[in-house]
Write a structure and sequence with these properties.
Number of helices: 8
Number of domains: 1
Largest sheet: 7 strands, mixed
Distance between the termini: 40 Å
CATH superfamily: Ribonuclease Z/Hydroxyacylglutathione hydrolase-like
CATH class: Alpha Beta
Structural class: alpha/beta
Number of strands: 13
CATH architecture: 4-Layer Sandwich
Helix content: 25-40%
Strand content: 15-25%
């Protein structure tokens, strides 16, 4: 009887430990496609894509430009595309949607979240593979702890992803065509929480130093603690963010893994 009780107690500890280890898995974001290289052996190209793990569902945000480069980087980084359950496309441009067809050939058992303005022809092309299109208009939860800003902008319409973490909100943007400051403000409004980190493409290539100074001032005024500007932000503009944020600037590039402990 004593041996049985000892085994039972041991089993309970193992079971409870396994439950808590799952709950405490860190939230990670891996950059799969970017203008810059972080991990040797990967390929850089104009475009953006990242993989989000540790949330309720595994999410692919954007798919880069060239299918062969996306698949090369996925192989080098040992990413299992079949584990992905949701896809979110920030906007219609090819440097964010170009790798989708290659991904869907590997895994079409996914829901693909797109701004509501996406063309019917694009949506039908996705659905014919067996994937499900979910058109996003207003802010909405796409799974537990992950939210879309809802479609924003006028000429180029876009949405970003908000991750609700214990450290604060993590906001990911593809190109921020509607304006990076306005998109960060929307992220704060959706959940009314502090912003821990903002990263992705900010589309600031044409901004002057004076305009950049004001954008960075607004970032800090909004309480953005860490910044990972990349892709279409502009090399000079990225350097200005680095200078302003110092150790709180997060270097991006293909292969970069951002870990956000719970």
């Amino acid at each position: 009887m004593k041996n049985f009780l000892a085994l039972f107690v041991a089993f309970c500890f193992i079971f409870i430990g396994s439950v808590f280890s799952v709950d405490n898995n860190p939230l990670t974001v891996t950059i799969l496609y970017d203008n810059y290289i972080f991990t040797e052996g990967t390929q850089a190209d104009w475009g953006f894509s990242c993989l989000i793990k540790g949330t309720e569902k595994t999410i692919l945000f954007d798919t880069g430009t060239k299918p062969d480069i996306l698949l090369h980087n996925v192989k080098i980084l040992k990413v299992n595309l079949k584990e992905i359950e949701l896809v979110a496309l920030s906007h219609i441009h090819g440097d964010h949607t170009g790798g989708l067809s290659a991904f869907l050939k590997e895994n079409s058992k996914v829901s693909v979240y797109v701004p509501i303005s996406f063309p019917d022809e694009f949506n039908k092309g996705v659905e014919v593979t067996g994937a499900k299109i979910v058109s996003v208009d207003k802010p909405v939860a796409i799974c537990k702890g992950v939210f879309s800003t809802g479609e924003m902008g006028t000429t180029i319409k876009e949405h970003g992803l908000i991750l609700d973490t214990e450290k604060g909100l993590v906001f990911i943007t593809g190109c921020a065509h509607p304006g990076i400051v306005g998109m960060v403000q929307r992220a704060k409004e959706v959940l009314d929480k502090n912003i821990y980190m903002v990263f992705g493409g900010f589309h600031l290539m044409q901004k002057s130093d004076a305009e950049m100074k004001e954008i960075i001032r607004q970032f800090k005024e909004m309480g953005v603690l860490k910044v990972g500007a990349t892709h279409c932000t502009g090399e000079h503009q990225i350097e200005l963010f680095k200078k302003a944020y110092g150790e709180n600037f997060v270097q991006m590039g293909v292969g970069r893994v951002i870990e956000i402990s719970k």
